[in-house]
Amino acid sequence: MSERLLDELVDALRCLPGVGRKSAQRMVWHLLERDREGGQNLAGVLKRVMTEVGHCQLCRNFSMQPICSTCSDESRDASIVCVVETPADVMAVEQSGSFRGRYFLTMSNLSPIDGIGPDEIGADALVRLCQGGVTEVILALDSTVEGEATSHFLTESLSQTGVSVSRIAHGVPMGGTLEYIDGGTLFHAISGRKPV
Fold it and tell me: FRET pair for 161, CA 20 to 30 Å: which of 8, 47, 118, 142?
């Protein structure tokens, strides 16, 4: 009976990205042998997070409130919205200190093969958001095939709203050497060049 319970915990931990069977087993053994109190705390906090954290009604980021702290921050510029895919992308932009507007999260990119369409990325919610005083949308999605398709779709969807739509620059990173940059990145860098 206890072995089945341990196998159940190992299988449950495997839902985490990058955690295979062996890694999950090591985690279980560690908690049981060395940190049962930590395991109890982990279980309690995980249960609370899974039941208490939802999505902001405006930007779709994770939040314990109907409107997240970023969307309710009156010092931020509500007329500019940066569209990103994940909460990790929001953190990256925030750490750069380069943006003081609001966000909208797609939580994925369009991928018909995976069943991810306009509803899943919140296209209609973004259009509704832009009808309430937004003047510019900055698309900051990945330069993957799916990210490019999502950016194109959102640009088309927003064309009737009258908002200005821009993309973040793509190109050679600071400190990058041209001989090691792939052709696609160089293409974006050259076609998106600006006068100096």
Answer: 142
**Count of alpha carbons within 13 Å of 77, Cβ hemisphere only?**
12
Picking from 96, 176, 175, 169, the residue whose alpha carbon sits closest to that of residue 139 is: 169
Q: Rounded to an integer, what distance in angstroms lies between the CA atom of residue 117 and that of residue 22?
A: 35
Give yes or no for a contact between 110 and 116, defined as CB atoms under 8 angstroms apart.
Answer: yes
* pLDDT tens by residue, 121-180: 999 999 999 988 899 999 999 888 899 999 999 999 999 899 999 998 877 777 777 777
Supply the range of the domain harboring residue 117.
77-167
86 by DSSP, 3-state: which? coil
> Which domain CATH number covers 105?
3.40.1360.10
Residue pair 49/74 in contact (Cβ under 8 Å)? The answer is: no
As beta bridge partners, residue 104 has 83
Supply the pTM of this predicted model.
0.83
Integer Cα distance of 48 and 42 in angstroms: 10
